[in-house]
Amino acid sequence: MKEIGVLGWILIGFVVGILVGAIVGKPAAELRPLGTVFINLLRMLIIPLIFSTLAVGVSAFTGKKLGKMFGKTYFFYYFTGVLAMIIALIIVGLSGAGVGFPTGELKKVEIKAPPKLVDVGLAIIPTNPIESLAKGDVLPIIFFAIVLGMAMAAAGKPAEPLKNFLQGLAETMYKLVGYVLWYGPIGVFALMAWTVGTHGLSVLKPYAYLIFLVYLATAIQVFIVYAGLLRIFKIRPYHYLNKIKEAPIFAFSTCSSSATLPVTMRVTRAAGVGDGTTSFVLPMGATVNMDGTGMYQAICAVFLANAFGISLSLHHYFLIGVTALLASIGTAGVPGAGLIMLSMVLGAIGVPIEGIALVAGIDRILDMPRTAVNVTDDAVAAALVGKTEGEKLPDDLLIR
Ligand code: ASP
Known about the structure:
It contains 19 helices and no strands. The chain is mainly α. It has one domain: Sodium:dicarboxylate symporter (Proton glutamate symport protein). Helix 2 (32-59) runs parallel beside helix 6 (138-155) and helix 15 runs antiparallel to helix 19. The longest helix is centred in the N-terminal third of the chain and has 33 residues, at 63-95. Residues 255-257, 290, 293, 331, 333-338, 367, 370-371, 374 line the site of aspartic acid (ASP).
């Protein structure tokens, strides 16, 4: 295992998984539990990792620095979000995708009502932090960790034992992420074999154009928008993307930004972004910053509107962009969550919600690239926030 390295084995697992899924077909689905083991191992780490690293990270910030970090982080999240919407809407608008697509007899679909954004906002303050930790509610935990970190800094010496304890927990959790990564190749292999095995070519064929558009738009977002931003801020784009590539690979195979979070934090930190920035920008990003999901929702909304013969004006496009951006903020970082929130976008432009059934069958295939973009987005935001905050990134990352 030593010479090839974990990353090499992960890539091998990825490719072999696709081949096995394609050759074996449906029976490859039996491999899924091996993938679930991997996802569960990653999920096991999320809560203690976020809580400890964020509280310790924030305790090193002054109030002014915290405010600046907050402003910059959200600026980067939504600046790239708006660009993502513009790119997705131009691509799908020009494509004419969905026109003449058979809508057939629509089956009633069971769609859970998307949560109201106001409720999502209010739920950020935990009424019982222990309960939030136990239930794994990420946003309330983030809120509590931030205020705890601020209070630890203000309390000074008496709070030191607590800080040391959390610091110890944080380092231990990072170590554990490393151990879990050794299982990564098997997990990635099983997830890819299952995905490819259960999606036959005949299922995908009618959707080839839609799939192509989602992959094209998300690739543009990564290789032009994120790479361009990194370059503007004098960070070598492909070097950085290369250093963090485990995160998008895991995101692609697990379809979960939350489950991938421990890996995203590890690789971003290893690439040279500071601990405080990593722990501040990434957990929040994994919950509210999802450019890939927004792009997918915008593209599907136009595709379905075209399929239903609803003609869209410029005003509709604007509405789709705004609602898809909002819907992506409310989307949880778990597989398929973006599909549920798509109903919010469809509702805004009067497309029958049942239209979701038309794209549900291939959701996993569209979930893979959007989740990969969601985590890349966070890792790029972390580098940009860190750099603009005067953090010293390793020399090999910098454009002189
Ligand atoms: N699977 C995505 C994620 O975890 C969310 C989505 O369904 O769009 O980031």
